[in-house]
Design brief:
This protein is an alpha+beta fold and 135 residues long. Helix content is 34%, strand content 13%. It has a two-stranded antiparallel ribbon.
Length: 135
C-alpha cells in the first residue's frame, strides 16, 4: 500500500511544504504511515527503509492534529489510489476484561463515577484505518 512519486505529485498540494534540513521526504513519511495502517504494526516495527520511526510518528502526529492527515486520506480516495475505511473503537473498563493479576492492590481512595456522564470527560477512541481493497 505505497504510493508512487507520480501519484504523490497529484496530492502534494495537500501536504505542508518542507522547510529547513529535513531527513525524510513527505512521500517517505506518507508511505510509512500507510505501511502502519496496512500492517497494523507498532511504530517501532517500521522497516529501516522508512527511516527513524520517531521522526515519522512525530510528523504524523503533527499532521493529524492540524487536519492534514484527514485531507491526505480524502485526496487519496478521491484520486482512487487507495480505498480506506476508518473505524472508531471505544475501549474502557466496562468492555475489556482484565486478568486478576492485572487488577493490582486495593486502592484507598476510589474514584466514583458522577451522576453526570458528561462531567467524566469524553470517551477515548482509537482510530483503526482498514484497507478495503487494492486498486
Amino acid at each position: 500500500m505505497e504510493i508512487t512519486a507520480e501519484q504523490y505529485s497529484r496530492i502534494e498540494s495537500v501536504l505542508p511544504r518542507q522547510r529547513g534540513n529535513v531527513s525524510l521526504s513527505n512521500l517517505t513519511v506518507l508511505n510509512a504511515i500507510l505501511y502502519v495502517a496496512e500492517h497494523g504494526c507498532k511504530w517501532r516495527g517500521l522497516p529501516k527503509r522508512f527511516g527513524n520511526w520517531h521522526t515519522i510518528y512525530t510528523r504524523m502526529s503533527r499532521w493529524s492534529k492540524s487536519g492534514v492527515l484527514d485531507a491526505v486520506f480524502e485526496n487519496l480516495q478521491r484520486e482512487q489510489f487507495l480505498r480506506i475505511k476508518l473505524e472508531a473503537v471505544s475501549l474502557d473498563s466496562t468492555s475489556v476484561k482484565v486478568h486478576p493479576d492485572g487488577t493490582g492492590a486495593l486502592k484507598k481512595t476510589a474514584r466514583k463515577r458522577s451522576a453526570n456522564r458528561a462531567a467524566d470527560g469524553p470517551p477515548k477512541f482509537i482510530w483503526l484505518p482498514r484497507m478495503l481493497e487494492r486498486l
